[in-house]
Amino acid sequence: MTHPSFLRFRPVPLRPRYDGWTPALQFDLIVLLARGARPGEAAGQLGMSRQSAYALRTHPRGDDFTRAWDEALTFARQVRILRARDAIAAARGDRQDKLYKPGPAPSQVSASQALHPDCRDAGHGAKGGPC
After folding, report:
1. Which of 27, 59, 63, 113 is the most buried (most CB within 10 A)?
2. Nearest alpha carbon to residue 33 among 77, 98, 3
3. What is the CA radius of gyration of the chain?
4. Terminal-residue alpha carbon distance, the chain
5. For the chain, what is the largest distance between any 2 Cα atoms, rounded to a whole number of angstroms?
């Protein structure tokens, strides 16, 4: 299985610092962005500031990191859209099943139709049936 292209990037080359953006933290930031976190929120979860994340994004040698950032945000946006479409489709399906099911109005259903299993689902019976 291949990884999404936003996970394949060259980290911004920085001087090592105990409190700086290591390649592992840069990777984690991209993953959090792809999961839908906002940049400031993602940086905060990693113990870094929003400002330092944006500075990393605009670093002169950070073109590949910037590409990964943009692709991760696009990926997260696409996932949100797909989830919203699924939720809308599910809601429409529920509504159609519950509110728009064809059949007679409740006041037109006889007691035998309401009780007989062949009549309950269809709203009417087969020709010659109990409904």
Report:
1. 113
2. 77
3. 28
4. 57
5. 86
The 8-class DSSP code of residue 116 comes to S
Helices 50-57 and 63-99: crossing angle, nearest 10°? 120
d(CA 9, CA 54): 17
Distance CA 56, CA 62 (A): 7
Q: Which two tokens stand for residue 40?
A: 């400031």
Asked whether the predicted pLDDT for residue 97 surpasses 60, the reply is no
Quickly state the pLDDT bin for 25 (edges 50, 70, 90).
very high
Which is more confidently placed, 103 or 47?
Answer: 47
Is 84 in contact with 66 (CB distance < 8 Å)? no
CB 26 within 8 A of CB 80: no
The 8-class DSSP code of residue 124 comes to S
